[in-house]
Amino acid sequence: MTRHFETRKNTEVHDLLPSLLRFAADPRIDAVGRTWIFDALRQLTGSNLADDIASWTAWYASAYGTKISASGPDQNFEEFIAACPWLPHGASF
Questions:
Q1: Domains in the chain, number
Q2: Along the 93 residues of the chain, how does pLDDT read in single tens digits?
Q3: Domain for residue 93, yes or no?
Q4: Which run of H or of E encompasses 44?
Q5: In 10 A of CB 10, how many CB atoms?
């Protein structure tokens, strides 16, 4: 299932990617949530990488010249989605 996101400014995408990547690596996120995250990453970046956190973190390091910190997300997944009003909110995770 693919979600459709509005086109965002590059700075907004850059700010979202670390959180999405941390959520993708979080073992508390179930398969549905993880699929949604990887779909979001593909749509936000235009990159067509697999559902693999290592590929996406390598892509991020190459694209932005920095690595994602190892710390987990600062909020839970539902709070993150609610804080992004342009994300579709009809899905349940």
A1: 1
A2: 334 444 445 677 777 888 889 888 888 888 988 998 898 889 888 899 999 999 999 999 998 888 877 565 666 777 777 666 655 544 444
A3: no
A4: helix 31-45
A5: 7
